[in-house]
Amino acid sequence: MLIKNKKFIILFFLVIMLSACSFKKQAMITKENNQLSSVPEKKIHNEMTVPLISANDHVRGTIDAPVTIIVYSDFECLFCARFENEDGSVARADAEFGDKLRWVFRHYPLPFNAQAIKAAEASECASEQDKFWEMHDLLFFNSSANQLNTLQFKQNAVDLGLDSAQFNTCLDTDKYYDKVVQAIVLANDLGIRSAPHFFVNGHSIIGALSYEDYDTDYGREKGLKTIITEELQKANN
């Protein structure tokens, strides 16, 4: 697995270098280490065409929901966990807006997070048994508790009532490694360089955005609640 991690890191940076040639006109999206910033990032202004939702995506919510939120994320990223945990913006949006939202999760494990790829693979192995979102929630809980490792992934499978033999074989054989790496390549081609990075009805936003509006040195910024509310108003017009 160490060899695969090294190959992934090399591939990650190679793709970024190649992608840079295609994005010369694009403003710098974020610092390379954006994940470590404790300040929610401002919404970026460059245009990005988000790939259509496909059978490869993990989707929850009604198909005709007026607001679709596509999240590119990393299970080992602490700010991703903050965004997605039970007290974060995702849960608060779910509680307030319910079936008006459709969520899509896409993998973007960062190269400096040692367990990120394997965690993504674990979620795919759980998806084989229709438990992607349950594993998704546990992985972010594990991340917050600094408990991301293969033994914990397998314990999660037991806790979720999965067929352990099937799950363990899937995980131990790196069955979904290539799928996860391909997801990274596609995200890099789009111009994504950090996590979390998400799109609300196509509007690109970087960082673990606060749910409520917040103050910055540049003035008052919109939180996720306001952005969703504005999209719902557009849908009703």
Automatic annotation (TrEMBL):
Coiled coil: none annotated. Residues 56-215 form the Thioredoxin-like fold domain. GO terms for molecular function: oxidoreductase activity. Keywords: Disulfide bond, Oxidoreductase, Redox-active center, Signal. Pfam families: Thioredoxin_4. The keyword Oxidoreductase applies. Belongs to the thioredoxin family. DsbA subfamily. This is Thioredoxin-like fold domain-containing protein. It comes from Candidatus Doudnabacteria bacterium CG10_big_fil_rev_8_21_14_0_10_42_18.
